[in-house]
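Hi support team,

I submitted a single chain yesterday and got back a structure, but I'm not sure I'm reading the token output correctly. Could someone confirm the output below corresponds to the sequence I sent? I've pasted both exactly as they appear in my results page.

Thanks,
R.
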Amino acid sequence: MRNRPPTIGEYLLKKLESYDIEHIFGIPGDYVLRFYHLIEQSEIQHIGMTREDAAGYAADAYARTKGMGAACITYCVGGLSMVNAIAGAYAEKSPVVVISGAPGIKERGKDALLHHKVRDFHTQQRIYDEITVATALLDEPFIAFNEIDRVLDAVYHYKRPGYIELPRDMVDVRGTLYRRPSTGGRVSDPETLNAAIDDAVKFINQSKNPVILAGVELHRFGYQGKLLKLVDEKRIPVVATLLGKSVIPESHPLYLGIYEGAMGRDEIREFVEDSDCVIILGAFMTDVNLGIYTANLDRARSIYATSEKISVRYHSYETVMFDDFIDGLISPQLKRRKKPNLAWALPDAAPFEVKPNAPLTVERLFKHLNEFISDELAVIADVGDSLFGAAELRIHQHTNFISPAYYTSMGFAVPASVGAQLSTPNTRPLVIVGDGAFQMTGTELSTTVRYGLNPIVLLLNNHGYGTERHLLEGDFNDIGCWNYSCMPSLFSSGRGFHVQTEGEFDEAMKTALAETQQFTLIEAELEKLDRSPALARLAERMSETV
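Hi R., thanks for writing in. Yes, this is the structure output for that exact sequence:
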């Protein structure tokens, strides 16, 4: 007797496993309970979060470090609560698969008024059509497997979220074995690829001071090794965008720092903008990456290569794959350059000297924090000065810095630390978060306790929405005061510190690094109007348009 095909729910889980997904983040609801029962029977572990948007952030961080992530929620009240997190994943190219339970097909007759329904039964899918690369409603057994493969293939290829809606009466229905091929590679047109590489190589060889501007797509597609090979073999200096920070080990001798227009260090901005050949690889040309459009990158002196576009100055090349183009640049035809003198770009080698009784300031806090950064830590920065101050941290290994540096959604970091640590259990998250963002999703520390995780949470308490204060001050920037350092008492686990001086911060960080069995929260008390140099430059630029 021939083996029967799997059910739709079983097939979906097996396909997720084939993409190396070992955890699914979410919150149950009646429309998805049957699928949750299948998850418990599978090799994939369900991670229960306290909020659906936090589940989305966790799946996003998991996807950024693991290659693909998944979230599973119930219909509308769950799916619509997750929209903001998935919108951010779409904007920043993070491959998250959203699986939503839904009313059964047989329940939908005569436009029934079932709970959680909004306008009609297709409302949620139409919304996700706008923030994912592919969606599917699994309402037909004959094509269900094909639809699952189509969505997962698109998520894998484009590194953007996908959406699968699973009616509860379809979970146990057996599908058909007829389906499209699984995810496969895409190839470049050989003649067009050769033309693009020849054009780029000639341009770079003719230049006197080329520089690589490395972006986040090198993270998403796993091309950090290709970047390192290009930099090492051809001796071309490299800078990163803010969103792409840590795409190359920042201790690398040819790494200069972050390029972000007028928001960044002047010497790096001048070096990049004076270059006669800027090789832009996998970078988003966003307002934040470009210092609120203060960057000055001339197309006539640029090569621009992403997963969606390849251009050499004013020449555009279609049907050329991003990875093939990078591999082509490493060809023998591209000449190896003399080792450049980049001593001017190196940070101050003198160790940070703690002033034990000095009040904490943002600028010195991050210089001090830099002394504690190691290969074992993964830095996860929320938005605001948590991000702008962290831009100056020296990240030793690649894929060790995560932040929503383009979409800039507050509340990302604490739940993201859950996904990041589960995807790479050999690293420990160092979460940097403001008090405003922490009040949005900081309760996910209960999830870290539940699953035995041990992040270090550095909470910058400047008593409100610090970034907005510098754009336009008003009482609307104030928030309620919490006793943040007492949070461990709430969860009956963890350690908390409230620090106001450099000496207290030094002791708290040393204790946190030694305490590996539970989370540590360090509340750093700061002056309300204190800010990093990067935020000062940003505020000066943005306040003109607010």
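A quick pointer for reading it: The chain has a mean pLDDT of 90. Let us know if anything else looks off.

Best,
Support desk
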